[in-house]
Design a protein that fits this description.
Strand content: 5-15%
Oligomer: single chain
Helix content: 40-55%
Largest sheet: 2 strands, parallel
Structural class: mainly alpha
Number of helices: 3
Order of helices and strands: HEHHE
Radius of gyration: 35 Å
């Protein structure tokens, strides 16, 4: 007659430890899943940023103060008025072309290449930008 051993639980799991290979495999799988989800999240954020930038109009900064400050000594009021009108006309053309044109006095910092160049009687070269 077979009798169970007293004090043992025949329903308990055996004392089995996973091998080092199984642990390494699980660790690598966890790292791979983490990397894949991080990459996917970064792509999603990048895609949203690109979509948002595509919706934003391009910017142009017009700085009328530079026209006044950069005028050579002895420039007449008519010359100044013509330079300001020229800058206003170019700002309107940029607005019609889809640019958001803002006054340079409202700008704290901006890249040099978004400033509308000052030309006419107020600058030595036509490619002189309003502010560095």
């Amino acid at each position: 007659m077979d009798s169970p051993v007293v004090g043992t639980n025949r329903f308990a799991a055996p004392n089995v430890r996973p091998s080092a290979a199984v642990i390494a495999l699980l660790l690598l799988a966890g790292i791979a899943i983490s990397l894949a989800s991080g990459w996917g999240f970064s792509r999603m954020v990048e895609r949203r940023l690109i979509e948002r930038l595509e919706l934003a109009p391009p910017l142009a900064v017009v700085d009328f103060a530079t026209v006044l400050e950069g005028a050579p000594a002895g420039t007449s009021g008519v010359g100044m008025r013509d330079a300001v009108r020229d800058l206003e006309a170019r700002a309107r053309r940029l607005g019609r072309a889809g640019y958001l044109v803002i006054d340079g006095q409202a700008v704290i910092a901006a890249p040099r290449d978004i400033y509308v160049p000052v030309r006419g009687g107020t600058a030595d070269r036509p490619d002189t930008v309003a502010r560095p």
